[in-house]
Amino acid sequence: MRLPELRAQVLDANRQIAARGLALHTFGNASGIFRPADGGEAMVAIKPSGVAYDALTAADLVLTRLDGSIVEGSLRPSSDLDTHLDLYRAFPQIGGIVHTHSEFATVWAQSGKPIPCLGTTHADYFHGSVPVTGYLTETAVSRGYVLETGRLITNHFAEHKLDPIATPGVLVVGHAPFAWGRTPAEAVEHADLLEFIARLAWRTTLLGLAGKPLPGYIAKHHHQRKHGPNATYGQRKPEHR
Ligand SMILES: [Zn+2]
Fold first, then answer.
1. DSSP per-residue string spanning 192-213
2. Where exactly are the structural domains of the chain?
3. 233 annotated active-site
4. pLDDT digits over 78-98, tens only?
5. CATH class of 3-227
6. Are 191 and 98 in contact (CB under 8 A)?
7. Whole-prediction pTM
8. What is the distance in A from the centroid of ligand 1 to the CA of 93?
9. Is the dihedral of CA 53, 54, 58, 62 positive or negative?
């Protein structure tokens, strides 16, 4: 992949946030990373701060290094840049990140509750519950709110031994979801699915079925069917989808 391709993919992921109704106004942002196969310097493309999705162009995207230094771009990067960078540093498997304040996922984030796996729709995409982080401490907020939000997520995954590919998203308590994937397109797909799963789980919970998680053997079967080494879902493809 080359940088123009990275820009095109990240522009499309940002447009998809708006097209799929995952963000009001300029809320939310998508980024992507190009990690050269030869071990050269990785490059991140991210939405600029406060630019409307329908006005966004590929040239508006800001290119940065993994340390946050800007390589190209005249606009200020998304204010969430440092969270994205921390996730890219900790999760080398991922290639795209999407942050939204989509309604139902944000409701769960605000409730401080992980989204339990109540059905196969969830199990197809998330192995186990969608996790929720703890709150940032006052010290962490004063140290650097955005970077510390990233650390909150990456520390939670390390502490609970979660695989970011099997669990492609998280709820930041009192805030909103972050989702990711191998590519920016997959990240936006997961952000959309996370919102759908959150909506299903909220409604299921209203019916009083919250105490009835999907049996683990069914959840595992569904996740493996889509993501395991012998996946049978969809058409055979040379690469993961
Ligand atoms: Zn946010």
1. HHHHHHHHHHHHHHHTT-TT-P
2. 3-227
3. yes
4. 999 999 999 999 999 999 999
5. alpha beta
6. yes
7. 0.91
8. 23
9. negative
